Predict the structure of DUF3311 domain-containing protein.
Amino acid sequence: MIALIIGLIVPILAIVALFPWYDRVHPLVLGFPFLYFWIFMWFPLTTLCLYVAWKLEHRALGEGER
């Protein structure tokens, strides 16, 4: 269950649920508007979340079931 939360819920909440918050912020980050920076930052972070979820799920299955 923790793998599902890390792999799916965290990225979805970061992109969709926090939209009203980061839509109001207008600074530039690395020359990009914050909205673009936030969305593009979550591409590698989503990959990282999916990797962590995969590792947790793989460990939960046990070493004998590979």
In short: The longest helix spans residues 34-61.
